[in-house]
């Protein structure tokens, strides 16, 4: 084989490889094969985390001097602006779905519940991370008070922010977690960050902290908690805004 | 002149592992650069974001080096974790086979004679002189050390630093954070290890070309290897 044909073969080969990757990336059946890895990771981490260990907690000395906020910086919906103008007097957190006693809680009621404070690391799917202190009501308290029904499998968090371009429901932020993670002691609905009121850019008045998962699971501006058997009929059906945009539902890695 | 001696150079498990691993590493590298592009800064310590000092800040890698070839973190992650599983399962099978079959002690562990010939092997490498005859049927000492370091240090390092970036794994195995000094450090070490593997592969490919690319590549596909003749005395 002469040098030129060998070089031509190499270039063609590399080109084919790249073109092949693009074709594969857009093939629905190949995407299903790739997605199998998520199931494997989910099952493996479920087994390793069966004892529900805590995420590492840090000290005040470890806090990030400045904590980046991602996604929505300020919800753009009329409802959120109206709540801001009225000082969230009429704001209520709803807990409903597969529960025996649906709840409606005001901010002062949430703040009067027994609280948990934790200093944890927040890992963005993009690769950066920051350490912050969070104070809030354990989700388990609310779920216990509401009485979760037997067929419940997921807890869905509906949010006040819409990050689509169009303002259609497809842009509404939402997230979902498994019941096992909903009962975890570090899963809290935080109303304070680093010892002060939660900033708007970090989800005021209420955000989820579900440690052991990537940042997009930690829904901000939570207004409604819905206990469900399946999230297939909610928005894009993948269990969250970013999940509907191709990200893994299981965000433990 | 007698017919050239032909031996079976690489056993079937080595050949299967080698090509699956090569495929996995290439796709892991390219999808890894896609993921890196989402936040192209590296830090030391438990955390690191935009406002924190970075020890390395790079421009984004060009699309022809990434999978997919346009910015798409979600798809890059799908490819990365799929081929990470291939890399891990293939690696575990290879590690078990290597130890249980005796490949490790027979072919990879340097012998006393290897250590005595260390200096000569270094000089041979500098002169680009490749072994012939009986010596060509075995790995030389620098080759053995390069393989051992890559197999049992760099590749496991890739896996361990990768897992240290997982918040789920951090809860399951918090000692990983202590081992690498935090998540941001693990991310930096993941990147550095990837660079060292690219360096290994570069040297590996240069050696293949220098030692006779057709014979070497064939020995890794079919196992057949023509032993280079000893130079005439």
What are the salient characteristics of this protein?
heterodimer, A: 253 residues, alpha+beta, Sulfite Oxidase, Chain A, domain 2, 2 domains, five-stranded mixed beta sheet, five-stranded antiparallel beta sheet, 7 helices, 10 strands, 25% strand, B: 233 residues, mainly alpha, two-stranded antiparallel ribbon, 64% helix, elongated
List the helices and strands and how they pair.
The complex is a heterodimer of chains A (253) and B (233).
Chain A: H1 3-25, H2 28-48, H3 78-85, E1 93-97, E2 103-105, H4 107-112, E3 116-123, E4 129-138, H5 139-146, E5 154-162, E6 172-178, H6 179-182, E7 187-193, E8 196-197, E9 207-210, E10 222-228, H7 241-244
Parallel strand pairs in A: 1-10
Antiparallel strand pairs in A: 1-2, 3-4, 4-7, 5-6, 5-10, 7-8, 7-9
Chain B: E1 6-8, H1 12-37, E2 41-42, E3 56-57, H2 73-100, H3 103-108, H4 112-116, H5 118-126, H6 141-164, H7 167-172, H8 175-180, H9 183-211, H10 213-221, E4 224-226
Antiparallel strand pairs in B: 1-4, 2-3
């Amino acid at each position: 084989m002469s040098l030129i044909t060998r070089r031509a073969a190499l270039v063609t080969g590399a080109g084919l490889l790249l073109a092949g990757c693009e074709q594969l990336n857009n093939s629905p059946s190949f995407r299903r094969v790739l997605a199998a890895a998520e199931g494997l990771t989910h099952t493996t981490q479920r087994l390793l985390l069966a004892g529900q260990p805590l995420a590492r907690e840090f000290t005040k000395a470890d806090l990030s001097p400045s904590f980046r906020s991602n996604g929505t910086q300020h919800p753009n919906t009329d409802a959120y602006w109206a709540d801001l103008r009225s000082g969230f007097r009429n704001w209520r957190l709803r807990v409903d779905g597969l529960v025996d006693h649906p709840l409606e809680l005001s901010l002062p009621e949430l703040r009067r519940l027994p609280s948990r404070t934790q200093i944890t690391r927040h890992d963005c799917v993009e690769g950066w991370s920051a350490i912050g202190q969070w104070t809030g009501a354990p989700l388990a308290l609310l779920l216990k008070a509401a009485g979760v029904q037997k067929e419940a499998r997921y807890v869905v968090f509906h949010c006040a922010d819409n990050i689509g371009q169009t303002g259609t429901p497809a842009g509404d932020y939402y997230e979902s977690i498994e019941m096992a993670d909903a009962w975890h002691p570090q899963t809290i609905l935080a109303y304070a960050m680093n010892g002060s009121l939660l900033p708007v850019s970090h989800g005021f008045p209420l955000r989820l902290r579900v440690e052991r998962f990537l940042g997009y699971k930690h829904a901000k501006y939570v207004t409604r908690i819905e206990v469900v058997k399946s999230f297939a009929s909610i928005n894009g059906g993948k269990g969250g805004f970013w999940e509907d945009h191709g990200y893994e539902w299981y965000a433990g890695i | 002149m007698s017919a050239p001696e032909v031996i079976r150079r690489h056993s079937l498990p080595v050949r299967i592992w080698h090509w699956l691993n090569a495929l996995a590493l290439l796709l892991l590298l390219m999808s890894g650069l896609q993921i890196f592009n989402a936040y192209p800064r590296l830090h030391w310590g438990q955390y690191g974001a935009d406002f924190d000092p970075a020890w390395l800040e790079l421009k984004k890698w060009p699309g022809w080096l990434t999978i997919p070839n346009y910015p798409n973190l979600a798809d890059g992650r799908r490819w990365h974790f799929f081929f990470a599983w291939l890399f891990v399962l293939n690696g575990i099978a290879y590690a078990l086979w290597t130890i249980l079959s005796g490949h490790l002690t027979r072919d990879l562990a340097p012998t006393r004679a290897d250590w005595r010939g260390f200096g000569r092997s270094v000089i041979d490498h500098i002169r680009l002189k490749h072994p012939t005859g009986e010596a060509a049927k075995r790995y030389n000492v620098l080759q053995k050390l390069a393989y051992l370091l890559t197999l049992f240090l760099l590749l496991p390092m890739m896996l361990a630093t990768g897992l240290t970036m997982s918040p789920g794994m951090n809860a399951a195995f918090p000692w990983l954070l202590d081992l690498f000094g935090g998540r941001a450090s693990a991310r930096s070490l993941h990147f550095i290890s990837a660079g060292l593997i690219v360096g290994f592969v570069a040297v590996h490919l240069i050696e293949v070309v220098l030692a006779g690319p057709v014979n070497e590549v064939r020995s890794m596909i079919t196992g057949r290897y023509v032993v280079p003749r000893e130079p005439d005395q």
